[in-house]
Amino acid sequence: MKPLDKIITCKDTSFKPIWIMRQAGRYLPEFRKIRKENPDFISLCLNDDLSSEITLQPLKRFNLDAAIIFSDILMLPYGLGQKVEFEKNFGPKLGKLNLNEITKIDDVDFVEKIHRVYKAIKKVSSDASLKNKNTIGFVGAPWTLLVYMINQQSPKKDLKKDFFRDESLINRVLLIIEKFLKVHIKNQIDNGANIIQIFDSWAGLLEEKNLPNYIYSPTLNLVNYTKSLNVPVICFPREIKNYKEFCDIVKPDAISIDYNVNPQKILGEVDIPIQGGMDPKILLTDKETLKKEASKYLDIFKDHPYIFNLGHGVLPETDPNMFDYLVKTVKNY
Ligand code: CP3
Description:
333 residues, seven-stranded parallel β-sheet, TIM Barrel, binds coproporphyrinogen III
């Protein structure tokens, strides 16, 4: 049995596996080298030789328990034919959403456009070094993808006032997103992903009254779909105010918490396995602080099924030696 399954399926509390969001990324010089030679981010994600190599980079250096495939949540709008670009020091920039064009796309067109992501997953999951490790596939949650597709860039702090202006458009796009997310999940699993994580990075932007429509209901559909394929699903509804309510309604197999969540409090609130929590900025301090903070999470979740991770992605300015120290701290705990 693979390490994350011991926690998620068997509720094992005797060991604490570790993987880190954005473990394949800019804090690694070997990634920056490939990135420099490949200025177009989407093309890099679609180059299965390079994207599988990048996925495995952190596992060559550190004793991690899982690989997360090097791709992006915005491969979904890309697969639907919306323009997606990444500008340095700005982040993603999307073209205007054209509902007429998007409704013409079928499963075959979509898979054709992004099939090399699946090829990369196949390469990674069949690599000998992953025999006893998980291969994590992922998607953006419908809400977060809707935000990017309508807003055409990362929202700053809040949504623009007119975000919900065209409610019928929003509801139609949401259904399209959900349909193709299922296709995306299925293809990742068919090619070797044995865990799915759903990233809802902008869950915290929604008012309470909108949660059922835009988060609970569409995410529950995806969670149920993934479960029906017999693969565990982890949800990360970042900065949502009420994690307990989310878990009670959506019922993921495990919940990933952000760094604003009080770990002691959530321990008393949910029964399912918990993942993550530690502030990525701790990796920018010193070894003593890092050990203390990591041990805090490990102590609190000592008798609970827990997967070590951060409360958001590892920061590009992180020293790989500190990353190494973190992995060793968790492994030696
Ligand atoms: O190692 C891994 O975690 C796997 C790869 C991965 C990437 N993006 C690669 C990436 C994963 C899981 C993601 C998810 C993702 N992408 C999310 C959800 C998690 C989160 O951060 O909240 C979101 C919101 C996106 C959209 C996105 N992609 C943004 C906002 C940006 C720009 C900001 C940034 O960090 O650069 C990206 C680009 C991106 N995705 C990079 C990487 C390694 C940086 C690209 C570069 O090298 O310039």
